[in-house]
Design a protein that fits this description.
The chain is an all-alpha fold. It has helices spanning 2-26, 37-50, 55-60, 68-75, 84-90, 93-106, 108-118, 122-133, 144-153, 158-173, 196-202, 218-231, 247-251, 257-271, and strands at residues 142-143, 182-183.
């Protein structure tokens, strides 16, 4: 009996190793130029199917193109070293605050509902909305799925963007993202520029439609933004300036210190604090 059990154990290990090797061979291979992209897409379709992606998501993979503009932008990003004052000037902070106050007044019921649900006041949400897309006016013109797929194929950050690609396909399966949706160059979605995985995790149905539409529904985009901040430790009723409890949640939104500070400053001005 002991010998048989031992034999079964080694047989199981061997089978597991063969399965692992098979999975490695089946995995779509990354590349550094457009030449291998069509073959990668065909390989990825099989992976996606095995991961439970449905027919809508799989069909969306038939309409991908290699996003050269996305790759060019990704490989040539330049860090900026503006002072806080210069950054706020360049980003038009005064105009965002002025318009943000009007948005707060015009959508008072929506923001009251969001604060009641998530504990996040209007100011920082509106500041993010204004900074990211000019209140939904500039959400991007890159085919979202092609951008994310191209970055998943590209060897530089393949693992991260493969996760984002699976998330985008699941959103398509749920009818929460159109297969032909357009957004920013790295696949950011909608009026406050969520990555697909964050839409899956923090997306909120702010308008009661039964779906999460980050592109066309400001209620969904703003509720999702509040949910993101709440999910990163936002404390109801606490302050959100540097050194205060909720500034840590704002820091999770963007890695740049001047961006974080700008959200906090503009948010307070919009809230009248």
């Amino acid at each position: 009996m002991a010998f048989v059990a031992k034999g079964k154990f080694f047989a199981g290990v061997a089978a597991a190793l063969l399965m692992t090797a098979g999975a490695a061979q089946a995995a779509a291979q990354c590349g550094n130029n457009s030449a291998g992209f069509p073959a990668w897409v065909e390989q990825f379709k099989q992976q996606a199917k095995s991961q439970g992606i449905g027919s809508k998501g799989l069909n969306a993979l038939n309409n991908l193109t290699y996003a050269s503009k996305t790759i060019s932008y990704d490989r040539n990003q330049k860090s900026f070293k503006y002072s806080l004052e210069k950054f706020m000037q360049v980003r038009g902070a005064q105009a965002i605050v002025a318009r943000g106050k009007r948005q707060k007044a015009a959508n008072a019921a929506l923001f009251a509902s969001i604060e009641k649900r998530y504990g996040v006041p209007a100011g920082p949400i509106i500041a993010i909305w204004g900074l990211e897309t000019g209140f939904g006016a500039a959400t991007g013109n890159q085919h979202t799925l092609s951008a994310v797929a191209t970055l998943a194929y590209d060897c530089r950050r393949s693992a991260y963007f493969t996760e984002q690609l699976y998330a985008a396909l699941r959103l398509i399966d749920k009818d929460d993202l159109a297969a032909d949706a357009r957004g920013a160059l790295h696949g950011e979605i909608g009026q406050t520029q969520f990555m697909p995985a964050n839409v899956l995790k923090y997306g909120a149905d702010g308008d009661g439609s039964g779906h999460i539409d980050m592109v066309h529904s400001k209620a969904d985009a703003l509720a999702s933004t509040a949910n993101y901040l709440a999910g990163h430790g936002w404390q109801r009723g606490a302050g959100y300036q540097p050194g205060q409890p909720n500034f840590a949640a704002i820091q999770e939104w963007n890695a740049a210190t001047v961006y974080q500070q700008t959200i906090a400053i503009m948010g307070a001005q919009i809230d009248g604090n």
